[in-house]
Design brief:
binds farnesyl diphosphate, Undecaprenyl pyrophosphate synthetase, alpha/beta, six-stranded parallel sheet, globular
């Protein structure tokens, strides 16, 4: 089951839930290596973690969860590993299609889907179509996604519109540019979490992360739990977000 049933009683919370959390699901390979397993076993375990964390986010009332599932650079991995990740995505999309009507969750994709298999692309179109009917918790899955690629595409689209006489270069502002990105209409992430001990952005949500708070932890993604997520939310609330202003 992709999304488990909602808890009967909402939990009492020490900290409010951020509206939008984004996660770089990193460390699957190292998790598998530590156990003498193939890297693909790490991705399987990582998928289960995704399912648990997405369910938890929905249950605590989060509005948006964005996860980095496959980057534009991940094609450099072995054919076997790429196939394993794609097959996990397919499995979860099939489950989602069966259950979205009941769970009213929405799935959306950020990335260039022209490069993925027609079968997987068709599944993303089906989940997109079901999602349009609802307005609750939304999971954005970054698939063949790169932040620079996203910005280039948006710039190209704006140039195309200018060349077609639909707008003028001087009319472009930050809000207008945001509307040309995969994340159009979705608020920027408040909190970006990267497990596995790596302390870098890796081409993830470059435009949207301008004012996001980052949370890094050594825990590998397959070991990431709702308790770890709560630690990140707590740390987020201890930060002093000034958006370039001065504390009053
Ligand atoms: C990064 O860990 C992880 C990935 C590139 C793949 C993430 C994919 C999944 C969790 C499975 C499918 C997703 C969904 C939404 C069902 P890594 O392999 O780079 O780990 P390493 O740095 O330890 O080698």
């Amino acid at each position: 089951m992709l999304f488990q049933k909602k808890n009967a009683a909402p939990l009492k919370r020490a900290y409010p839930v951020p509206e939008h959390v984004a996660i770089i699901m990193d460390g699957n390979g190292r998790w598998a290596k530590k156990r003498g397993l193939p890297r693909t076993a790490g991705h399987s375990a990582g998928s289960e973690t995704f399912r648990r964390i997405a369910t938890y986010c929905r249950d605590i009332g989060m509005r948006y969860l964005t996860v980095y599932a496959f980057s534009t650079e991940n094609w450099k991995r072995s054919e076997e590993e790429v196939a394993a990740i794609m097959s996990l995505l397919k499995k979860y999309l099939l489950e989602a299609i069966d259950e979205m009507e009941e769970d009213h969750i929405r799935l959306h994709f950020f990335g260039d889907l022209s490069a993925i298999s027609p079968e997987l692309r068709e599944l993303t179109q089906r989940t997109d179509a079901i999602s349009e009917k609802y307005d609750g918790f939304q999971v954005n899955v970054c698939l063949n996604y790169g932040g620079r690629d996203e910005i280039c595409r948006a710039a190209r689209e704006f140039a195309r519109r200018c060349a077609a006489g639909e707008c003028k270069p001087e009319e472009l502002d930050e809000n207008g540019f945001s509307e040309l990105l995969y994340s159009a209409g979705i608020p920027d992430p408040d909190l970006i979490i990267r497990p596995s001990g790596e302390v870098r952005i890796s081409n993830f949500l470059l435009w949207q992360s301008a004012y996001a708070e980052y949370y890094f932890t050594d825990v590998l993604w397959p070991d990431f739990t709702p308790q770890e997520l709560e630690k990140a939310i707590e740390a987020f609330h201890r930060r002093d977000r000034r958006y370039g202003g001065v504390k009053r």
